[in-house]
């Protein structure tokens, strides 16, 4: 097994008297005594404990046993810290970056423990290495490195150097000793649930190929968990898959993840692995088995626990497209490479379009440079302002405030050290207008109007209008009274779609006013 430049093994101190704390009873007692009501202190104690643990010399089996006992508490801390990182969008507060650094430090130290075991086992004879400790330690090491990758994807940060090559090396080792397909329990607390080294390897490969820069933070975890159930259907081979339109390769001697290639002649080096998606795609195309009718992709920033492992239909379509090699990117609307004024959210866009005298441009609009013909980049003054699914309206710097295009952020391209965020958009309309609406059935004059946006789409066959609003209660077939250019008229809503974070789009059509006769409410007997 090669040395790792990422998981560097510290000098091992031989202190036999300190090993007692790592025996099962003493270790379990220490874990039980942790101040779980104080997560900050508990997290610090676990990190310090792991740091000392990795610096002590002990047998491979003793280290492995201790790591398995520690795993549940470490995963609990990991889950808590990730939750703290997902409260808002980008850019992140300085405290969130501190939390991220602590998270990576704990994940790294915990994974290093398993790496030490793997290194120790590879020094033994091959026959001894064939025992059950080999697949367990390799699987846990790949799982730990995968968690580090996932945490970086959550923050839209580049995966650290040497992580990918370590993941590839561990998988190749498992193939060499013919342990890549042996199921290993996910946890010593759940012995019935098993994942092989190959399953864990394919899982992180598929997440990488899902282009996490196009996923919300919650979706990174949602997709990673979904893949776990289906990673076995991905085929790893040593030659191209002729029936695939796009070949996907892994350069196992390189420090990079898998990627699709466009060359007509694929590489034939023995270190190159090919990925076959045909079986996986065929299974996923039976969408009724994997799609949740209740979930909408952009209904919330936070992950809702789903024990059924189902995905929103839009998210499943996104994954299938990525795994068939279809390149994902925004629309090339910034080809002139000019700066743009933009605002985030329906209300801010509505206020600018309606010409409200109280609206201050400096508060509602921000200036962004065009980072490419597809992306904008902005150094936001406030944290948590943008996320995948954010509704964006924008205009050229020299255009009027009312001449605005509308889109939804579909890819966050970079998060730089200077705080500048790059993002691409899915364009909805080149021109959008402000409207308002009220309930159709209620006639109360004191009912407040709700803000909405409307745009039209023309084709050779027809012309359609679409309205965007923030109501979760409106459904297909409902009617509302819309006010546009001082004219109020009823419209019917159709083809409901969750297009952005909290935003719903309907195709709308004007209808004739219905004669709704107000029925007198019957009163009870006043003498009873």
Structure description:
This protein is α+β, with helices and mostly antiparallel strands. It has three domains: 16-324, no CATH class; 340-429, no CATH class; 433-510. It contains 13 helices and 18 strands. It has helices spanning 24-32, 39-54, 60-85, 94-122, 126-129, 133-154, 163-176, 197-209, 217-230, 278-284, 313-323, 346-354, 361-364; strands at residues 184-187, 190-195, 235-237, 247-251, 259-261, 272-276, 340-344, 366-370, 375-379, 391-396, 405-415, 420-429, 433-439, 450-458, 463-469, 479-484, 487-500, 503-510. A six-stranded antiparallel beta barrel has the order 7-8-9-12-11-10. Strands 13-14-15-18-17-16 form a six-stranded antiparallel β-barrel. Strands 3-6-4-5 form a four-stranded antiparallel beta sheet. Strand 10 (391-396) and strand 11 form a beta hairpin. The longest helix is centred in the N-terminal third of the chain and has 29 residues, at 94-122.
In total, how many beta strands?
18
Helix run count: 13
The domain count comes to 3
**Low-confidence segments, ≥5 residues, pLDDT <50?**
none
Major sheet: arrangement of strands = 7-8-9-12-11-10
What is the global morphology?
elongated
Rg, Cα atoms, Å: 28 Å
Mean pLDDT: 90
Main pleated-sheet profile: 6 strands, antiparallel, barrel
Structural class determined from secondary elements: alpha+beta
Helical amount among residues, as a percent range? 25-40%
User: What separation lies between the terminal Cα atoms?
Assistant: 90 Å
Please indicate the percent range of residues in DSSP E strands (runs of 2 or more).
15-25%
């Amino acid at each position: 097994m090669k040395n790792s430049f990422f998981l560097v093994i510290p000098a091992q101190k031989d202190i036999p008297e300190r090993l007692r704390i790592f025996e099962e009873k003493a270790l379990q007692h220490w874990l039980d005594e942790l101040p779980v009501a104080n997560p900050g202190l508990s997290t610090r104690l676990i990190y310090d404990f792991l740091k000392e643990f990795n610096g002590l010399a002990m047998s491979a089996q003793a280290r492995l046993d201790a790591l398995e006992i520690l795993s549940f508490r470490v995963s609990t801390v990991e889950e808590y810290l990730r939750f703290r990182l997902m409260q808002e969008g980008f850019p992140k507060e300085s405290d969130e970056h501190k939390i991220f650094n602590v998270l990576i430090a704990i994940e790294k130290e915990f994974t290093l423990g398993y790496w030490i075991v793997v290194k120790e086992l590879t020094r033994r004879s091959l026959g001894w290495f064939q025992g059950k400790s080999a697949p367990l330690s390799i699987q846990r090491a790949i799982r730990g490195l995968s968690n580090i990758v996932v945490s970086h994807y959550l923050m839209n940060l580049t995966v650290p150097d040497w992580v990918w090559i370590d993941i590839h090396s561990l998988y190749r080792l498992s193939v060499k000793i013919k342990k890549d397909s042996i199921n290993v329990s996910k946890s010593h607390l759940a012995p019935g649930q098993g994942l092989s080294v190959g399953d864990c390897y394919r899982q992180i490969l598929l997440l990488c190929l899902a282009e996490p820069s196009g996923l919300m933070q919650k979706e990174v975890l949602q997709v990673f968990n979904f893949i776990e159930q289906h990673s076995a259907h991905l085929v790893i081979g040593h030659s191209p898959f002729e029936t695939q339109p796009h070949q996907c390769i892994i350069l196992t001697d390189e420090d990079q993840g898998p990627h699709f290639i466009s060359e007509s002649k694929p590489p034939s080096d023995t270190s190159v692995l090919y990925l076959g998606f045909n079986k996986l795609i065929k299974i996923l195309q039976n969408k009724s088995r994997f799609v949740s009718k209740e979930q909408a992709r952009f209904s919330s920033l936070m992950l809702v626990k789903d024990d059924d492992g189902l995905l929103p239909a839009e998210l499943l379509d996104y994954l299938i497209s990525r795994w068939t090699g279809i390149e994902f990117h925004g629309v090339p609307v910034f080809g002139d490479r000019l700066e743009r004024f933009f605002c985030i959210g329906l209300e801010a866009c509505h206020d600018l379009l309606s010409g409200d005298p109280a609206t201050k441009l400096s508060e509602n609009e921000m200036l962004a440079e065009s980072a490419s013909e597809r992306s904008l980049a902005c150094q936001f003054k406030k944290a948590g302002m943008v996320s995948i699914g954010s509704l964006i309206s924008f205009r050229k710097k020299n255009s009027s405030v009312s001449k605005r295009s509308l889109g939804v952020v579909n890819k966050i391209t970079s998060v730089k050290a200077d705080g500048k965020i790059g993002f691409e958009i899915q364009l909805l309309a080149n021109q959008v207008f402000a409207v308002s609406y009220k309930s159709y059935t209620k006639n109360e004059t004191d009912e407040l109007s709700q803000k909405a946006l409307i745009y039209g789409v023309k084709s050779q066959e027809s012309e359609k209008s679409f309205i965007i609003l923030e109501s979760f209660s409106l459904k297909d077939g409902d009617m509302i009274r819309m006010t546009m250019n001082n004219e109020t008229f009823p419209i019917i809503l159709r083809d409901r779609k969750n297009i952005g974070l909290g935003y719903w789009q309907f195709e709308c059509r004007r209808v004739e006013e219905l004669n709704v006769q107000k029925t007198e409410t019957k009163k009870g007997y006043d003498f009873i």
